[in-house]
Amino acid sequence: MSDQKATYSEPSSPPWLLSTQTGRFLLIVWVLGAVGFSTWQIYCYIKFAKNVRSTWLPVPKENEAVHLLNELKQNLSIPDKVQIAYSNGISSPILMGIRSPAILLPAAHCLQANLKLVIHHELVHLKQKDLWVKLLVLVVSAVHWFNQWKTINEEAWHDDECKKGKEEVSANCHTDHYGW
């Protein structure tokens, strides 16, 4: 037998492994970014919602828009209570509110579009739960705030959702007057 003794050496760590201190630093940066992103999104939404609500004008019950809303809700089997209102704080129709949804129409200018198509389009967004999906996209965006591909995908998702709503409406109606 040889007189060589087996020597024990500490296993070497892979070169890509971060130190604990670096890992903690990166975690703190990520958390601060996620909190900052979330805080900014919440602030912007609250500011927008206050602006819209301060200019909110309820649509009278006898108005054609209310009758169209009720008719289209029934046709689309939407049991939710949906409000409809005018607002000077917007320039195009929107659906707003997860707990108590409302279709908001711009008050500043008369819609050059067919009101039935506009309301139908916004109800399709409600039926497809697009506001919930948008909230989920914001949560995922907060987690992945550092990833610029997320921004590109988020914009593409929004465009796709609006196109899907338009396609469903156009499949059921003639859409020349909606401006698509």
UniProtKB/TrEMBL annotation:
InterPro entries: Beta-lactam_resp_regulator, Peptidase_M56. The chain crosses the membrane at residues 25-46. Residues 20-147 form the Peptidase M56 domain. Keywords: Membrane, Transmembrane, Transmembrane helix. PANTHER family: POSSIBLE SENSOR-TRANSDUCER PROTEIN BLAR, SLR0241 PROTEIN. This is Peptidase M56 domain-containing protein.
